[in-house]
Specification:
The chain is built from 2 helices and no strands. The longest helix has 36 residues. The two termini are 25 Å apart. It has one domain. The chain is an all-alpha fold and 65 residues long.
Length: 65
Amino acid sequence: MNKDQVEGRMEEVKGKVKEVVGRVVGNEKLKGEGAGDQAAGKVQSTYGDIKEKTKDAIKSGADKL
């Protein structure tokens, strides 16, 4: 697991918490921020997933040489 995967998933959790709190207290701005944080976290964690898969593929290819 790399830094982008961890940070992205943490951002998704933070966004979910903000969204739920915003919904509970009726704060549309907080709810929107939460949704935005979740989206940003998803992008970052997906980027981290791609980096990890690429690294694994390169290592796997190098092992076959």
